[in-house]
Amino acid sequence: AITMLFYTKKNYKIFSLWLKTPSIPNKTYVGRNPKWYNNLNIDTKYKNLVRSIHAENWHNVIFYLKYYPADETYEVIRSYFQSVYNYKLKQKNLADIPYNDKQHIVFTLIFYLLIDENEIQKKAIFRSYDHDIYEVGIKESCLPVQPVYKTLPEKLKYPIKNSIGCFPLARYNLKNITLKELYWYHWEYCCYNCPLWRERFDKYKITIDHDNKAIRFEDDDEYEEFSEQYYYENDEQSKKVQEKNIGDIPKISLQTWIESIN
Predict the structure, then answer these.
(1) Among 159, 141, 160, which residue's Cα sits nearest to residue 151?
(2) Rounded Cα–Cα distance for residues 225 and 204 (Å)
(3) Domain-by-domain residue ranges, the chain?
(4) Phi/psi of residue 208, each to 5°?
(5) Beta carbons of 49 and 22 less than 8 angstroms apart
């Protein structure tokens, strides 16, 4: 499924539009209603919603979708496209779709039904997938490195993307400590939030010291055993290796990020 998703056509407009949170409409449709509207069998309170859809006024569409309940707007949307575009749309129950943001689903449906047909990828793309090659790669990546401190230089293949500064990263909210200090001196404490590392730690008798951001081993022999397997000497690694983990990520706007991935 991931390989199919990777090769399919992408459109980031829905993502970027839905992040907007308009507080008021930018246009109210008054005066004589168009003929197509008079043919609709909908409550008049949705007039500005359907007219905004017809005009592709996304600011208004998003405002009204976030204002009204999703199950109501879904029925309005079905009525609009069946009447105006003569589309035959199957009845769906939004509650059956395993995604909590139902308003987002309705917005995506509107956008999809209005998009130029040439922009829609109708044929499924199938890519050959060799699971044996995948398994070989996984096994190789999991092979231990000796001495242990060479693990990061050998296994750390890719840096964190530095163009994700539009998101609320935890590093932007650090107080009284730097990211480097966390990485050098408190890496065990930070790693404990990772399921894989938590499993590794929980094999031993430990205590979580939140005040000092540390993992305390109750038995010295157990600590030595753990260190022999996982003490990667973060603070002793080269600058190149360290920057792959904690490189600078400047804050940027969401629009800048979207432009960078288009």
Answers:
(1) 141
(2) 10
(3) 2-119, 145-252
(4) -90, 115
(5) no
59-87 average pLDDT score = 96
**In terms of DSSP bridges, do strands 214-217 and 206-209 run parallel, antiparallel, or are they unpaired?**
antiparallel
Give CA torsion, residues 240, 244, 250, 256, to 10 deg.
120
Distances (CA, A) of 262 to 17, 145, 164, 258: 15, 38, 14, 6
Q: What is the pLDDT of residue 77?
A: 96
- Quote the DSSP letter at residue 145: -
Among residues 143, 147, 166, which one has the least CA distance to residue 155?
143
Q: What DSSP element (H or E) covers 258?
A: helix 254-261
- Rounded distance, CA 173 to CA 182, Å? 13
pTM for this structure?
A: 0.66
Give the DSSP H or E segment for 216: strand 214-217
